[in-house]
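Researcher: Re-running this chain for the archive, since the previous output was lost when a drive failed. Same request as before.
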Amino acid sequence: MAETTNPPRGIAATCHVETAEGPVAMAETPGRGFAVLTRLPSGALGFRQLIKVVSMADVPLVRVTLDDGHVALVASGHPFYRLGMEPVPACRLAPGDLLETAFGYPDGYVPPDAARPCRGRATAVRAVEAAGTGTVLTGTVRETHALFLTAGVLCGE
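Model: Regenerated structure tokens:
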């Protein structure tokens, strides 16, 4: 039987996650036990502790650019959640994919400074591109095993 390996997971050290203290770079999380924003099993937003953070070097990276201009630099196998809570590795995301977010607008809402309506509870992927190799960090989020990047999208721990 052929052995399969899962692609590496993790978030680049410079990428920020949402915590109870505000945005924090992943590089600052080891040994700190930050409470990170997550989606609870009930569907509500809440905070759970990020523990056991470890780093891995020389990991293939992917740059995910969102339609609002935010960028996430992650390991190629790091899971994001498409709308409907479908996990997908970063390297398999495609432009136009709708991702779960921490916030939402009523259907048809147009902010005063926007040219078009906002997208309810999703953020679209604008681009996905290889970004060389680098160091990433990953850990365990108690209960949910998912967290929100400061870019506003839900991804795996």
